[in-house]
């Protein structure tokens, strides 16, 4: 699990990002789709053009869920239980894609929060996002 210092690093960066979830979320998705085009196959019903309403809304949902998870760091599994059901039973997203999204989120943070998202903060976020991903893919079989 995350150490107290890692929890603090996750939460303090979130405090910076939380005011801008749609834009940051949309950018993370855009980076995901540009760098790893195979991930677009799950979103054929979306308009994925730069700055689209769909990207903003979905980016806001994804990042919002991550922000909510930062408030439940001692209880991530139950906090993410519904989303875990959705991704495993309904969406059946290939688990490998979670690493790609986690990467895109980190690059987006680095470009927005150059000073705050230092190596320590990134390591904490990488660990946190890998827990989130593990939970969202835990019910696949
Ligand atoms: C839907 C979060 C990873 C594909 C959602 C929703 C949230 C969410 C909050 C909306 C649920 C609702 O409307 O009730 C997350 C988080 C992720 C993650 C926190 C990892 C950190 C992924 C990945 C993919 C993916 C890697 C595929 C590349 C989808 C799809 C939907 C969805 C296709 C449904 C979109 C729609 O039709 O509205 N996700 N997600 N998710 N997610 Fe994820």
From TrEMBL:
Matches recorded under Pfam families: Globin
GO BP annotations listed: hydrogen peroxide catabolic process
Annotated PROSITE patterns: GLOBIN
Residue stretches making up the Globin domain: 1-141
InterPro entries linked: Globin, Globin-like_sf, Globin/Proto, Hemoglobin_a-typ, Hemoglobin_oxygen_transport, Hemoglobin_pi
Protein name (Swiss-Prot/TrEMBL): Globin domain-containing protein
Keyword Acetylation set for record: no
Any one annotated GO CC term: haptoglobin-hemoglobin complex
UniProtKB keywords: Heme, Iron, Metal-binding, Oxygen transport, Transport
Domain of life: Eukaryota
GO MF assignments: haptoglobin binding; heme binding; iron ion binding; organic acid binding; oxygen binding; oxygen carrier activity; peroxidase activity
Family per similarity comment: Belongs to the globin family.
């Amino acid at each position: 699990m995350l150490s107290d210092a890692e929890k603090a690093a996750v939460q303090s960066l979130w405090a910076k990002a939380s005011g801008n979830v749609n834009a940051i979320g949309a950018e993370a998705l855009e980076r995901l789709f540009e760098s790893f085009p195979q991930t677009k196959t799950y979103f054929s019903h979306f308009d994925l053009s730069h700055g689209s309403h769909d990207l903003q809304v979905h980016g806001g949902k994804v990042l919002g869920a991550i922000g909510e998870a930062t408030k439940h760091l001692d209880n991530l599994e139950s906090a993410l239980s519904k989303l875990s059901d959705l991704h495993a039973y309904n969406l059946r997203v290939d688990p490998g894609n979670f690493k790609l999204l986690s990467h895109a989120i980190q690059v987006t943070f680095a470009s927005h929060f150059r000073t705050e998202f230092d190596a320590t903060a990134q390591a904490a976020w990488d660990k946190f996002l890998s827990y989130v991903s593990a939970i969202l893919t835990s019910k696949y079989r």
